[in-house]
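@channel sequence for tomorrow's demo:
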Amino acid sequence: MRLTLPDPSLIVLMGVSGVGKSTFAARHFRETAILSSDRLRAWITDDEADQGATSDAFTLLHMLVDRRLAHRRLCVIDATNVQGFARAGYLSLARRHRLPAVALVLDLSLEVCQRRAAARARRVAPEIIAQQAQDLRAALPMLSREGFQAIHLLREAQIEGVVIDLSPARPHACPNAAP
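structure tokens (generated this afternoon):
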């Protein structure tokens, strides 16, 4: 499977803990384009699992997205993004900067995600992952109304073989751009 994504743009990765968002992002995008909520928590407290730093991490994340988009740089959001309020702020920034937003949904079975998460040093409780999976399922029918230029749902068989090409974005052609 080959995906052509606009550059610059906002790429919102979506998926539950353990789905492989960070691995996927590292495989397909420049390190400087990837803005990770886990990494920002670690920068703030030296612990990416420190949920007490989540508010500060997301404040910093939104600021970095805003500045990168203002400089017309690709932004790849590496966070679960399974709840609408989490995506809304990013979409607003993309509109303000007249750049396209693309949702890349990584969709693996709950069992695979829970197994992967259990094998990681930073553990996420199975019930949290189950709730994220439920939130993701509820979000999928809503995405087309949120303002994404494109939505790509990648299932297990597609994730490993996908090839991503970046293509120059035309800001005035973006359906989610503010008038």
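heads up for whoever presents: The mean pLDDT is 90.
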